[in-house]
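Per your request, structure below.
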């Protein structure tokens, strides 16, 4: 009997030591601000992809909730970013979409399409406009602030029980943005931003983007799958819930043009990358 008790105690102690060693696993190796920004920037510049998500604009009091299902066509690399956000539901707004383009180091431009045939050009000064009435601007979904000239690690902080490194990004003189700085709380183990705070040039916090769910994409990388955007409208916010993403797609040359914006078809699949 005593032998059995000693064996049980030994096993429980061994299990406790294993649990303790797992929780005390060494942290990821230290990275410079430039290295961290470069790695995060490269994750965004991941070529062609196709995604679907649900955008839910939580209303101000006495205002109706707006829910849209969107498809996203995008092509991101070091030389340019091109994307189309297009409504596929509800039926009354199906086909409504926005085209955004930005060559590296150049101002952004695009167009807004409302069926059946209304096309409104967009200039760089209009990137402050809201995306489908949400708390995100057009600039928020377009620009990659990890490639900005000035990157600094300003500290660490726990977000959702995860120790994060805080990366502060600031645009250089020749880089175009409506923001003066962006702070990103990065989970280094998964290389995922858990919080992003965007500040106006005046230093005022403009919006906060919080990751509420992390999932694996089709390339087996951890990415923010669900987001909540707040800070723009008092007592209101926007939720984005991703449902799928596919990088095994190719786009015709005319996809990211005014004519391509009017085409709601799903891109052609290619062999898995």
């Amino acid at each position: 009997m005593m032998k059995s008790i000693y064996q049980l105690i030994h096993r429980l102690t061994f299990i406790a030591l294993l649990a303790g060693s797992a929780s005390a696993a060494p942290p990821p190796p230290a990275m410079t601000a430039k290295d961290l920004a470069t790695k995060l920037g490269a994750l965004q510049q991941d070529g062609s992809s196709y995604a679907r998500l649900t955008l839910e604009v939580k209303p101000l009091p006495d205002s109706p909730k707006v829910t849209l299902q969107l498809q996203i066509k995008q092509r991101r690399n070091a030389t340019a970013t091109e994307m189309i956000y297009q409504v596929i539901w509800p039926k009354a707004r199906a086909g409504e979409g926005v085209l955004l383009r930005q060559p590296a180091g150049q101002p952004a431009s695009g167009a807004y399409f409302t069926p059946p045939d209304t096309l409104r050009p967009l200039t760089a000064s209009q990137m402050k406009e809201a995306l489908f009435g949400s708390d995100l601007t057009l600039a928020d979904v377009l620009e990659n602030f990890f490639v900005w000239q000035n990157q600094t690690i300003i500290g660490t902080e726990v977000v959702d029980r995860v120790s994060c490194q805080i990366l502060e990004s600031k645009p250089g003189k020749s880089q175009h943005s409506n923001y003066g700085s962006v702070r990103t709380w990065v989970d280094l183990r998964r290389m995922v931003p858990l919080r992003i705070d965007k500040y106006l040039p005046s230093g005022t916090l403009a919006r906060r983007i919080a990751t509420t769910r992390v999932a694996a994409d089709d390339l087996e990388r951890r990415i923010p799958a669900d987001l909540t955007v707040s800070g723009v409208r008092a007592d209101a916010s926007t939720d984005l819930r991703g449902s799928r993403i596919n990088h095994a797609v190719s786009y015709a040359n005319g996809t990211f043009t005014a004519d391509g914006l009017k085409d709601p078809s799903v891109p052609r699949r290619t062999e898995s990358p």
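The chain is about 15% helix and 45% strand.

Regards,
D.
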